[in-house]
Amino acid sequence: MSDSELAAIRQKKLREIQRRFSAKQTQPDTTGPKDVLNRIFKDRAWEVFNSATAQFPVEMSKVRKILTELAVSGKITQVTGEELFVFLKKLGLDVKLNTTITYASHGQLKTLEEKMKEELTKT
Asked: What is the reported pTM?
């Protein structure tokens, strides 16, 4: 192959790559906020997020938008439940989470409440 043929092949490849890149740039992002958040949320982040949304719907819609923008831009790649909880606390959103303490007794899982009721009925 001559130099002119190689240059022509390179030019053709370059135009193809530029065409693909411009097509990607013009395509609107069709992934919804839930899909974007699903990629970055780890551990119990959805639990914290859903509890916060139920308690503070207006504020959490703004937080959802900001988190989505940061995730799409690549500025955040992962958010755990603990990180989200602390972040919301710093924003002034005191999120209440449902918490239960369970233990195993004779092969059964029981809550602390059930244990206390059993102890009170024994006496």
From this structure: 0.63
